[in-house]
Amino acid sequence: MTEFDAPLAGLTTLQVGGPAARLETATTEQELLDLARSTWADGDDWFVLGGGSNVVVADEGFEGSVIRVATRGIAPVMSQVGTVRLRVQAGEPWDDLVAHTVSNGWSGLEALSGIPGSVGAAPIQNIGAYGQEVASSIVSLDFLDHDTGSVRRMQRDELELSYRSSIFKRGLRGVVLSVTFELQDAWGDALTRSDASVALSQPVNYAQLASSLGVSVGDRLPLTEVRRAVLWLRASKGMVLDAADPDSVSAGSFFTNPIVTEHFARTLPSSAPRWQIEPDEPDVVVPLAGDYGNDGMEVALDGDRGAGSAGGAGLAAAATEYHVKLSAAWLIENAGIRRGFSLPGSTAAISGKHTLAIVNTGAGGGGASGLPGGRAADVAELARYVQGRVLAEFGVLLQPEPVFLGHEL
Ligand SMILES: Cc1cc2nc3c(=O)[nH]c(=O)nc-3n(C[C@H](O)[C@H](O)[C@H](O)COP(=O)(O)OP(=O)(O)OC[C@H]3O[C@@H](n4cnc5c(N)ncnc54)[C@H](O)[C@@H]3O)c2cc1C
Questions:
Q1: pTM over 0.85
Q2: What sections of 146-198 are H helices per DSSP?
Q3: Substitution candidate for ligand 1 out of 29, 55, 57, 115 with most atoms within 8 A of CB
Q4: Which tens digit of pLDDT belongs to each residue from 377-404?
Protein backbone atom coordinates (compact mmCIF):
# COMPACT_ATOMS: atom_id res chain seq x y z
CA MET A 1 0.00 0.00 0.00
CA THR A 2 1.41 3.42 -0.92
CA GLU A 3 0.47 6.69 0.79
CA PHE A 4 1.78 10.17 0.08
CA ASP A 5 2.37 12.92 2.64
CA ALA A 6 1.61 10.26 5.23
CA PRO A 7 1.55 11.20 8.95
CA LEU A 8 4.18 9.29 10.91
CA ALA A 9 3.57 10.46 14.49
CA GLY A 10 0.82 7.90 15.05
CA LEU A 11 3.11 5.14 13.82
CA THR A 12 5.61 5.86 16.58
CA THR A 13 5.33 5.37 20.33
CA LEU A 14 6.63 8.88 21.08
CA GLN A 15 3.90 10.26 18.80
CA VAL A 16 5.80 13.27 17.49
CA GLY A 17 6.88 14.33 14.04
CA GLY A 18 5.56 15.27 10.63
CA PRO A 19 4.70 13.26 7.52
CA ALA A 20 6.74 11.10 5.19
CA ALA A 21 6.74 12.13 1.54
CA ARG A 22 5.90 8.50 0.76
CA LEU A 23 4.92 5.60 3.03
CA GLU A 24 4.79 2.05 1.72
CA THR A 25 3.63 -0.87 3.82
CA ALA A 26 4.64 -4.47 3.09
CA THR A 27 2.62 -7.32 4.57
CA THR A 28 4.46 -10.26 2.96
CA GLU A 29 8.16 -11.02 2.56
CA GLN A 30 7.86 -10.87 -1.25
CA GLU A 31 6.14 -7.48 -1.03
CA LEU A 32 8.90 -6.26 1.27
CA LEU A 33 11.58 -7.39 -1.19
CA ASP A 34 9.81 -5.78 -4.16
CA LEU A 35 9.11 -2.58 -2.27
CA ALA A 36 12.63 -2.11 -0.99
CA ARG A 37 14.20 -2.83 -4.38
CA SER A 38 11.88 -0.45 -6.24
CA THR A 39 12.39 2.29 -3.62
CA TRP A 40 16.16 1.93 -3.91
CA ALA A 41 15.93 1.99 -7.71
CA ASP A 42 14.14 5.37 -7.46
CA GLY A 43 17.19 6.75 -5.65
CA ASP A 44 15.16 8.57 -2.97
CA ASP A 45 16.22 8.80 0.63
CA TRP A 46 14.62 5.87 2.52
CA PHE A 47 14.01 4.56 6.00
CA VAL A 48 12.80 1.21 7.33
CA LEU A 49 10.09 1.49 10.00
CA GLY A 50 9.01 -1.33 12.28
CA GLY A 51 6.91 -0.58 15.35
CA GLY A 52 8.26 2.98 15.64
CA SER A 53 9.27 2.48 19.29
CA ASN A 54 12.86 3.63 18.90
CA VAL A 55 12.54 6.57 16.55
CA VAL A 56 12.08 10.33 16.90
CA VAL A 57 10.61 11.81 13.71
CA ALA A 58 11.34 15.49 12.97
CA ASP A 59 8.45 17.97 13.13
CA GLU A 60 9.16 18.72 9.46
CA GLY A 61 8.74 15.03 8.64
CA PHE A 62 10.88 13.04 6.24
CA GLU A 63 11.47 13.96 2.59
CA GLY A 64 11.88 10.40 1.47
CA SER A 65 10.26 6.97 1.39
CA VAL A 66 9.42 5.07 4.54
CA ILE A 67 9.25 1.31 4.08
CA ARG A 68 6.99 -0.03 6.82
CA VAL A 69 7.49 -3.66 7.72
CA ALA A 70 4.19 -5.35 8.59
CA THR A 71 5.00 -8.95 7.68
CA ARG A 72 3.84 -11.72 10.02
CA GLY A 73 4.64 -15.32 10.74
CA ILE A 74 6.36 -17.63 13.22
CA ALA A 75 7.52 -20.92 11.69
CA PRO A 76 9.37 -23.78 13.41
CA VAL A 77 12.52 -24.91 11.61
CA MET A 78 14.80 -27.92 12.10
CA SER A 79 16.16 -28.25 15.64
CA GLN A 80 17.82 -30.75 17.96
CA VAL A 81 16.27 -32.47 20.95
CA GLY A 82 15.96 -29.99 23.81
CA THR A 83 15.99 -26.93 21.60
CA VAL A 84 13.52 -25.24 19.29
CA ARG A 85 14.31 -23.07 16.30
CA LEU A 86 11.84 -20.49 15.03
CA ARG A 87 12.08 -18.40 11.88
CA VAL A 88 10.11 -15.24 12.53
CA GLN A 89 9.08 -12.59 10.02
CA ALA A 90 10.50 -9.12 10.68
CA GLY A 91 7.14 -7.42 11.18
CA GLU A 92 5.94 -9.80 13.88
CA PRO A 93 5.37 -7.79 17.09
CA TRP A 94 8.22 -8.62 19.49
CA ASP A 95 6.10 -9.23 22.55
CA ASP A 96 3.72 -11.52 20.63
CA LEU A 97 6.75 -13.67 19.90
CA VAL A 98 7.82 -13.67 23.56
CA ALA A 99 4.29 -14.56 24.70
CA HIS A 100 4.20 -17.38 22.13
CA THR A 101 7.51 -18.84 23.36
CA VAL A 102 6.53 -18.62 27.02
CA SER A 103 3.18 -20.29 26.48
CA ASN A 104 4.91 -23.10 24.59
CA GLY A 105 7.48 -23.66 27.34
CA TRP A 106 10.46 -22.38 25.34
CA SER A 107 12.97 -20.35 27.36
CA GLY A 108 15.45 -17.69 26.26
CA LEU A 109 13.31 -14.61 25.64
CA GLU A 110 11.22 -14.40 28.82
CA ALA A 111 13.17 -11.52 30.42
CA LEU A 112 12.62 -9.52 27.23
CA SER A 113 8.86 -9.54 27.83
CA GLY A 114 7.04 -6.28 27.20
CA ILE A 115 9.60 -4.61 24.94
CA PRO A 116 7.64 -2.85 22.20
CA GLY A 117 8.50 -3.01 18.52
CA SER A 118 9.09 -5.63 15.88
CA VAL A 119 11.21 -8.76 15.57
CA GLY A 120 13.19 -7.30 12.65
CA ALA A 121 14.35 -4.37 14.78
CA ALA A 122 15.44 -6.54 17.71
CA PRO A 123 18.94 -7.25 16.32
CA ILE A 124 19.44 -3.64 15.19
CA GLN A 125 20.28 -2.46 18.69
CA ASN A 126 20.52 -5.93 20.25
CA ILE A 127 17.58 -5.37 22.56
CA GLY A 128 18.13 -6.27 26.16
CA ALA A 129 16.51 -6.05 29.57
CA TYR A 130 16.60 -7.69 32.98
CA GLY A 131 19.78 -9.64 32.33
CA GLN A 132 18.91 -11.01 28.89
CA GLU A 133 19.96 -9.85 25.42
CA VAL A 134 18.50 -11.02 22.15
CA ALA A 135 22.05 -11.79 20.99
CA SER A 136 21.95 -14.97 23.09
CA SER A 137 19.02 -16.43 21.16
CA ILE A 138 19.63 -15.32 17.58
CA VAL A 139 21.04 -17.98 15.25
CA SER A 140 20.89 -16.07 11.97
CA LEU A 141 18.84 -13.60 10.00
CA ASP A 142 17.87 -13.05 6.39
CA PHE A 143 18.96 -9.65 5.17
CA LEU A 144 18.25 -7.73 1.98
CA ASP A 145 21.48 -5.84 1.41
CA HIS A 146 21.09 -2.33 0.02
CA ASP A 147 24.53 -2.37 -1.59
CA THR A 148 24.05 -5.61 -3.54
CA GLY A 149 20.24 -5.82 -3.80
CA SER A 150 20.44 -9.49 -2.88
CA VAL A 151 19.34 -11.52 0.12
CA ARG A 152 21.92 -13.17 2.32
CA ARG A 153 21.69 -15.27 5.45
CA MET A 154 23.86 -13.71 8.14
CA GLN A 155 24.99 -15.87 11.05
CA ARG A 156 25.03 -14.45 14.58
CA ASP A 157 28.82 -14.01 14.55
CA GLU A 158 28.57 -11.71 11.55
CA LEU A 159 26.11 -9.38 13.27
CA GLU A 160 28.67 -7.82 15.67
CA LEU A 161 26.06 -7.72 18.42
CA SER A 162 27.13 -5.79 21.51
CA TYR A 163 25.51 -3.51 24.07
CA ARG A 164 22.75 -1.64 22.14
CA SER A 165 24.72 -2.04 18.92
CA SER A 166 25.24 -4.22 15.87
CA ILE A 167 26.75 -4.18 12.41
CA PHE A 168 23.59 -2.34 11.29
CA LYS A 169 24.24 0.49 13.75
CA ARG A 170 27.78 0.62 12.38
CA GLY A 171 26.66 1.28 8.82
CA LEU A 172 25.37 -1.87 7.09
CA ARG A 173 22.20 -0.72 5.30
CA GLY A 174 19.26 -2.82 4.18
CA VAL A 175 16.22 -4.65 5.47
CA VAL A 176 16.05 -7.49 7.98
CA LEU A 177 13.49 -9.86 6.46
CA SER A 178 13.31 -12.54 9.15
CA VAL A 179 15.20 -13.70 12.21
CA THR A 180 15.88 -17.29 13.32
CA PHE A 181 16.01 -17.90 17.08
CA GLU A 182 17.12 -20.92 19.06
CA LEU A 183 15.37 -21.47 22.39
CA GLN A 184 15.56 -24.12 25.05
CA ASP A 185 12.63 -26.50 25.15
CA ALA A 186 12.07 -25.99 28.86
CA TRP A 187 9.47 -28.73 29.23
CA GLY A 188 12.08 -31.47 29.24
CA ASP A 189 11.41 -34.82 27.63
CA ALA A 190 9.52 -36.34 30.53
CA LEU A 191 6.94 -33.62 30.92
CA THR A 192 3.58 -33.46 29.28
CA ARG A 193 2.66 -30.21 27.61
CA SER A 194 -0.58 -29.72 29.48
CA ASP A 195 0.73 -27.44 32.23
CA ALA A 196 2.68 -24.36 31.12
CA SER A 197 3.55 -23.48 34.72
CA VAL A 198 6.19 -26.23 35.03
CA ALA A 199 8.44 -25.05 32.19
CA LEU A 200 11.45 -23.29 33.70
CA SER A 201 13.09 -20.04 32.66
CA GLN A 202 16.76 -19.43 32.00
CA PRO A 203 18.58 -18.56 35.26
CA VAL A 204 17.35 -15.19 36.49
CA ASN A 205 20.32 -12.94 35.88
CA TYR A 206 19.28 -9.56 37.28
CA ALA A 207 19.19 -8.65 40.96
CA GLN A 208 16.06 -6.49 40.86
CA LEU A 209 14.11 -9.18 39.01
CA ALA A 210 15.35 -11.90 41.37
CA SER A 211 14.37 -9.82 44.38
CA SER A 212 10.88 -9.09 43.04
CA LEU A 213 10.46 -12.84 42.52
CA GLY A 214 11.81 -13.60 46.00
CA VAL A 215 14.66 -15.78 44.65
CA SER A 216 18.44 -15.53 44.26
CA VAL A 217 20.28 -14.53 41.12
CA GLY A 218 20.92 -17.74 39.17
CA ASP A 219 17.66 -19.43 40.21
CA ARG A 220 15.23 -20.72 37.62
CA LEU A 221 11.49 -20.25 37.89
CA PRO A 222 8.45 -21.09 35.82
CA LEU A 223 8.57 -19.07 32.60
CA THR A 224 5.13 -17.64 33.20
CA GLU A 225 6.17 -16.25 36.60
CA VAL A 226 9.26 -14.60 35.17
CA ARG A 227 7.24 -13.03 32.35
CA ARG A 228 4.63 -11.76 34.82
CA ALA A 229 7.30 -10.23 37.10
CA VAL A 230 9.10 -8.56 34.20
CA LEU A 231 5.85 -7.06 32.90
CA TRP A 232 5.01 -5.81 36.38
CA LEU A 233 8.45 -4.24 36.91
CA ARG A 234 8.39 -2.65 33.47
CA ALA A 235 4.90 -1.21 34.02
CA SER A 236 6.04 0.32 37.32
CA LYS A 237 8.65 2.25 35.29
CA GLY A 238 6.31 3.24 32.44
CA MET A 239 8.18 0.83 30.18
CA VAL A 240 5.16 -1.09 28.89
CA LEU A 241 2.99 0.59 26.27
CA ASP A 242 -0.28 1.41 27.97
CA ALA A 243 -2.85 3.89 26.66
CA ALA A 244 -3.77 4.65 30.28
CA ASP A 245 -0.16 5.49 31.27
CA PRO A 246 1.06 8.88 29.97
CA ASP A 247 4.60 7.92 31.03
CA SER A 248 4.65 5.24 28.34
CA VAL A 249 4.38 7.81 25.50
CA SER A 250 8.12 7.56 24.97
CA ALA A 251 10.85 5.88 22.99
CA GLY A 252 11.91 3.85 26.04
CA SER A 253 15.29 4.70 27.52
CA PHE A 254 16.43 7.88 25.80
CA PHE A 255 20.14 7.44 26.54
CA THR A 256 22.40 4.42 26.56
CA ASN A 257 24.48 3.60 29.61
CA PRO A 258 27.86 5.19 28.88
CA ILE A 259 30.91 2.98 28.59
CA VAL A 260 34.06 4.65 29.86
CA THR A 261 37.57 3.67 30.83
CA GLU A 262 38.08 2.40 34.35
CA HIS A 263 40.59 5.21 34.75
CA PHE A 264 37.96 7.84 33.95
CA ALA A 265 35.36 6.15 36.16
CA ARG A 266 37.66 6.71 39.13
CA THR A 267 37.05 10.47 38.74
CA LEU A 268 33.35 9.95 39.50
CA PRO A 269 31.85 9.84 43.00
CA SER A 270 32.29 6.41 44.54
CA SER A 271 28.50 6.12 44.81
CA ALA A 272 28.16 6.14 41.00
CA PRO A 273 27.16 2.59 39.97
CA ARG A 274 29.54 0.90 37.53
CA TRP A 275 29.93 -2.55 36.03
CA GLN A 276 33.13 -3.87 34.52
CA ILE A 277 32.69 -5.10 30.97
CA GLU A 278 34.77 -6.61 28.21
CA PRO A 279 36.30 -3.99 25.89
CA ASP A 280 33.43 -3.09 23.58
CA GLU A 281 32.44 -0.05 21.62
CA PRO A 282 33.05 2.79 24.03
CA ASP A 283 31.21 6.06 24.33
CA VAL A 284 32.70 9.53 24.14
CA VAL A 285 34.03 10.76 27.44
CA VAL A 286 35.15 14.28 28.17
CA PRO A 287 37.18 14.46 31.39
CA LEU A 288 35.87 17.04 33.83
CA ALA A 289 39.17 18.82 34.22
CA GLY A 290 39.49 19.41 30.48
CA ASP A 291 38.84 22.57 28.51
CA TYR A 292 35.68 21.93 26.50
CA GLY A 293 36.88 23.99 23.57
CA ASN A 294 37.81 22.01 20.46
CA ASP A 295 41.52 22.03 21.06
CA GLY A 296 41.29 21.24 24.72
CA MET A 297 38.67 18.52 24.39
CA GLU A 298 40.35 15.35 25.42
CA VAL A 299 38.20 12.54 24.15
CA ALA A 300 39.23 9.47 26.03
CA LEU A 301 37.71 6.91 23.72
CA ASP A 302 36.29 6.26 20.28
CA GLY A 303 35.37 9.65 18.90
CA ASP A 304 33.28 8.68 15.88
CA ARG A 305 30.02 8.37 17.76
CA GLY A 306 29.81 11.91 19.01
CA ALA A 307 31.45 15.29 19.25
CA GLY A 308 35.17 15.61 18.92
CA SER A 309 37.70 13.10 17.72
CA ALA A 310 40.38 11.25 19.52
CA GLY A 311 44.02 11.39 18.61
CA GLY A 312 45.68 8.12 17.59
CA ALA A 313 47.70 7.95 20.78
CA GLY A 314 44.58 8.30 22.91
CA LEU A 315 42.88 5.45 21.09
CA ALA A 316 45.87 3.17 21.42
CA ALA A 317 46.03 3.83 25.13
CA ALA A 318 42.28 3.29 25.55
CA ALA A 319 42.39 -0.03 23.71
CA THR A 320 44.47 -1.67 26.45
CA GLU A 321 42.28 -0.38 29.30
CA TYR A 322 39.33 -2.05 30.96
CA HIS A 323 36.00 -0.42 30.43
CA VAL A 324 33.11 0.02 32.79
CA LYS A 325 29.48 0.71 32.11
CA LEU A 326 27.90 3.56 34.06
CA SER A 327 24.24 4.11 34.88
CA ALA A 328 22.85 6.89 32.67
CA ALA A 329 19.86 7.19 35.04
CA TRP A 330 22.18 7.76 38.01
CA LEU A 331 24.17 10.39 36.11
CA ILE A 332 20.98 12.24 35.12
CA GLU A 333 19.51 12.15 38.62
CA ASN A 334 22.79 13.23 40.19
CA ALA A 335 23.15 16.07 37.72
CA GLY A 336 20.03 17.41 39.43
CA ILE A 337 17.33 16.35 36.97
CA ARG A 338 14.30 14.87 38.64
CA ARG A 339 11.46 12.70 37.42
CA GLY A 340 8.73 14.79 35.79
CA PHE A 341 11.16 17.63 34.96
CA SER A 342 10.19 19.80 32.01
CA LEU A 343 11.55 22.99 30.43
CA PRO A 344 9.11 25.95 30.47
CA GLY A 345 6.47 25.72 27.73
CA SER A 346 7.72 22.36 26.53
CA THR A 347 5.61 19.38 25.41
CA ALA A 348 8.40 17.02 26.51
CA ALA A 349 9.22 15.92 30.05
CA ILE A 350 11.31 13.42 31.93
CA SER A 351 9.04 10.49 32.75
CA GLY A 352 7.41 10.64 36.16
CA LYS A 353 8.49 7.03 36.68
CA HIS A 354 12.03 6.85 35.27
CA THR A 355 14.67 9.53 34.65
CA LEU A 356 15.96 7.72 31.57
CA ALA A 357 12.76 8.18 29.53
CA ILE A 358 11.58 11.35 27.81
CA VAL A 359 7.82 11.47 27.36
CA ASN A 360 5.61 13.48 25.05
CA THR A 361 3.20 15.28 27.35
CA GLY A 362 1.35 16.81 24.40
CA ALA A 363 0.26 13.45 23.02
CA GLY A 364 -3.43 13.19 22.39
CA GLY A 365 -3.76 16.99 22.52
CA GLY A 366 -4.68 17.07 18.82
CA GLY A 367 -3.52 19.86 16.57
CA ALA A 368 -5.16 21.68 13.67
CA SER A 369 -3.90 18.83 11.51
CA GLY A 370 -5.75 16.29 13.62
CA LEU A 371 -2.42 14.65 14.46
CA PRO A 372 -1.45 13.95 18.04
CA GLY A 373 0.15 16.93 19.79
CA GLY A 374 3.70 17.25 21.04
CA ARG A 375 6.82 18.50 19.28
CA ALA A 376 9.93 16.62 18.29
CA ALA A 377 11.83 19.89 18.75
CA ASP A 378 10.83 19.91 22.43
CA VAL A 379 12.02 16.31 22.84
CA ALA A 380 15.35 17.18 21.23
CA GLU A 381 15.72 20.36 23.32
CA LEU A 382 15.13 18.46 26.56
CA ALA A 383 17.54 15.72 25.47
CA ARG A 384 20.23 18.33 24.76
CA TYR A 385 19.55 19.95 28.12
CA VAL A 386 20.02 16.61 29.89
CA GLN A 387 23.22 15.98 27.93
CA GLY A 388 24.51 19.43 28.87
CA ARG A 389 23.80 19.01 32.58
CA VAL A 390 25.43 15.57 32.74
CA LEU A 391 28.42 16.76 30.72
CA ALA A 392 28.91 19.77 32.98
CA GLU A 393 28.58 17.72 36.16
CA PHE A 394 30.40 14.51 35.27
CA GLY A 395 32.20 15.05 31.95
CA VAL A 396 30.21 12.32 30.20
CA LEU A 397 28.41 12.97 26.93
CA LEU A 398 25.31 10.78 26.98
CA GLN A 399 24.47 9.18 23.65
CA PRO A 400 20.85 8.92 22.50
CA GLU A 401 19.42 5.43 22.10
CA PRO A 402 16.59 6.20 19.63
CA VAL A 403 17.15 6.90 15.95
CA PHE A 404 16.48 10.47 14.76
CA LEU A 405 14.63 10.63 11.43
CA GLY A 406 14.77 13.88 9.46
CA HIS A 407 16.81 15.69 12.13
CA GLU A 408 19.73 15.23 14.50
CA LEU A 409 20.23 15.74 18.18
C1 LIG B 1 8.15 1.89 26.43
C2 LIG B 1 9.40 1.38 25.73
C3 LIG B 1 10.23 0.49 26.38
C4 LIG B 1 11.39 -0.01 25.74
N5 LIG B 1 12.18 -0.88 26.41
C6 LIG B 1 13.29 -1.38 25.81
C7 LIG B 1 14.13 -2.30 26.50
O8 LIG B 1 13.86 -2.72 27.62
N9 LIG B 1 15.24 -2.75 25.87
C10 LIG B 1 15.57 -2.34 24.61
O11 LIG B 1 16.59 -2.79 24.09
N12 LIG B 1 14.79 -1.46 23.93
C13 LIG B 1 13.67 -0.97 24.49
N14 LIG B 1 12.88 -0.06 23.83
C15 LIG B 1 13.28 0.40 22.50
C16 LIG B 1 12.57 -0.34 21.35
O17 LIG B 1 11.38 -0.95 21.77
C18 LIG B 1 13.46 -1.39 20.69
O19 LIG B 1 14.63 -0.78 20.20
C20 LIG B 1 12.76 -2.08 19.53
O21 LIG B 1 13.55 -3.16 19.08
C22 LIG B 1 12.46 -1.17 18.35
O23 LIG B 1 11.63 -1.88 17.46
P24 LIG B 1 10.74 -1.15 16.38
O25 LIG B 1 10.17 -2.19 15.50
O26 LIG B 1 9.76 -0.27 17.06
O27 LIG B 1 11.84 -0.30 15.60
P28 LIG B 1 11.66 1.15 14.96
O29 LIG B 1 11.54 2.15 16.03
O30 LIG B 1 10.61 1.14 13.94
O31 LIG B 1 13.09 1.29 14.26
C32 LIG B 1 14.25 1.35 15.05
C33 LIG B 1 15.48 1.18 14.14
O34 LIG B 1 15.47 -0.13 13.59
C35 LIG B 1 15.44 -0.08 12.16
N36 LIG B 1 14.60 -1.18 11.70
C37 LIG B 1 13.36 -1.51 12.13
N38 LIG B 1 12.93 -2.61 11.50
C39 LIG B 1 13.92 -2.98 10.64
C40 LIG B 1 14.08 -4.03 9.70
N41 LIG B 1 13.14 -4.98 9.51
N42 LIG B 1 15.21 -4.07 8.96
C43 LIG B 1 16.19 -3.16 9.12
N44 LIG B 1 16.09 -2.13 10.01
C45 LIG B 1 14.98 -2.06 10.76
C46 LIG B 1 14.87 1.31 11.84
O47 LIG B 1 15.28 1.73 10.55
C48 LIG B 1 15.48 2.12 12.95
O49 LIG B 1 16.81 2.42 12.63
C50 LIG B 1 11.71 0.44 24.44
C51 LIG B 1 10.86 1.34 23.79
C52 LIG B 1 9.72 1.82 24.44
C53 LIG B 1 8.81 2.78 23.72
A1: yes
A2: none
A3: 115
A4: 999 999 999 999 999 999 999 999 999 9
